[in-house]
Each structure stands twice: as C-alpha cells, then as structure tokens.
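Long-time lurker. I teach an intro course on protein structure, and each term I like to show students one example going from raw sequence to a predicted 3D structure in token notation. This year I'd like something fresh instead of my usual example. Would anyone be willing to generate the tokens for the chain below so I can use it in lecture? Attribution to the forum is fine with me.
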Amino acid sequence: MLKSCGVLDPSLPYTDHIARVKPTVSAISIDALERLLRHEEPQKYHLFDVREPYEWNEERIPTAKYTGRGHLEKLVEAEASATDDILLYCSNGNRSILSADSLKSIGFQNVKYLEGGISAWKLANKTVSRNMRAVSN
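-- Reply from a regular --
Happy to contribute to a lecture. Here you go:
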C-alpha cells in the first residue's frame, strides 16, 4: 500500500508502486518536449535527467541538467521555484515517475515526466548529445 507521496512502501513490488504512482503525476509527450527545446512554445522550464551518472555520460537530451535521484530534491530546489515547470526523464520513465512524485511531495506544483524516457526519445529519432556533441539518431 502507498503510505505517502514520495515514499516507497517496502511491502509493494517496484512495478506495483510505479502503477500506483503513475496516475498521480503528469506526463509530457516527446513532441511537446521537442517544441519546448526548439522554443516553439514560449514557456520557461527546467529539464532534468534523473538517470545514473554513467547513463548521463553516454547520452542525454540537449539542454538537460544532470541531477540523478540521490540529490534530486536539493538540486531542483536550488534551480527552480515551486511554481516553475519541471520536466524529468530517465531511461524508460519509471525513475522519472518516482522522481516527479517525490518533487510533488515537497511542494513542486508543475512536474512532468517524459513518456517513455530517453529510450522513446531516441526511437522517435530525436537529437541526443553524446560525448559533449549533439547527434541525431
């Protein structure tokens, strides 16, 4: 059973916890994120990668900032206000769903996760940065 926002219940399997949390957080589509990155949507946002450091070093969505889950709340709080748009991504969406839930629990109001994560982003042939340079998939 989910005990409170942002807290994993050790009695639940990971996949069950994701299933319970997912309906409580908002998603952003690949196309909507791409419009933001191209400045087609006049909106201020913060894009954070919540994956592990080795994943970040391999590839990332351009303009994203690395935070990882271990210091997520501290780093996001330093960069954004509670009413800013916060966009999160991971490999396939699960870690960013949990991260969005955690940020909501401390008062961030406009948090979204990227549907399908960077894996879906790459499948849609969107640009990723690798080794400090941007490349198209």
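Some talking points for your students: The CA atoms of residues 2 and 20 lie 7 Å apart. The mean pLDDT is 88.
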